[in-house]
Amino acid sequence: MKELEKGVKPTEELLRQTAVGKMVNKLKAHKSPEVAKLASTIVNKWRRDINSLKGPSGAATPTGGKGMNGTASPRPSATPTPQPKLENTVPPDKRTHKTDKVDINKTSDDSRNNCIRLLYDGLAHTSSVSATKVLSIAVAIEEAALRICGDGQSSAAPYREKVRSLFMNLKNKSNPGLRHRILGGEVTPERFVSMTHDELKSEQQKAEEIKIAKENLDKAMVAQEEKSVSTSLQCGKCKEKRVSYSQAQTRSADEPMTTFCECLSCGNRWKFS
Length: 273
Prior knowledge:
The protein has 11 helices and 4 strands; from the N terminus they run αααααααααααββββ. It has helices at about 1-5, 10-20, 20-25, 35-50, 110-125, 130-150, 155-170, 175-185, 190-195, 195-200, 205-220; strands spanning about 230, 245-250, 260-265, 270.
């Protein structure tokens, strides 16, 4: 019995195959108090040893993450993250407050709500920015226009004219950068309302105007060919002899020069060689 107590490392399988557990358990009722006590001690010890080999739930802990049949325990499937629904379901160049299903009635004033509508449609045009953000910026621009141009009065003509002007600039196909700058936060609503006509122009428009102005300046600075006035040349139209003329080599060098004439009285022009 003492050898069983010290020399045996019990497992459920060992006790089941050898039936030694049943034998020792019967000895708990032995007539000898010492034998009965020792048998009870052994049974209790074996029970503790076997329980220590089991997991917290009372079942044997699988080795290497496998179950009793040797196959890997199935892992719970991860819950798929729900994808946010897209607010914009139409092509960007077709976006309006209607296609975005936006409620533009943010005030109790119909005139102001109509202005918010215009500004929303102008900002949303060709944009992929969320409807929520576009609406908040449109409302902020309208409030700034009412405060700066209308003195708080939606019936004020300067307020309405300003909103229409802002809308036209937002819809300008040649100036998409303006919308991007406003929606991106580079231009605040207050700044947008206060911008001059020249400030609202795109960089491309500004560069083109500078180019044209330079070309006109260059043309103006080109020295004009001086013309002489003759009192001997007669205009064939009005018969006056107040004719200005200039000469230029329009053909080969051995050919005579061409004389260009203009009557100072009637404006008739002609040439001869």
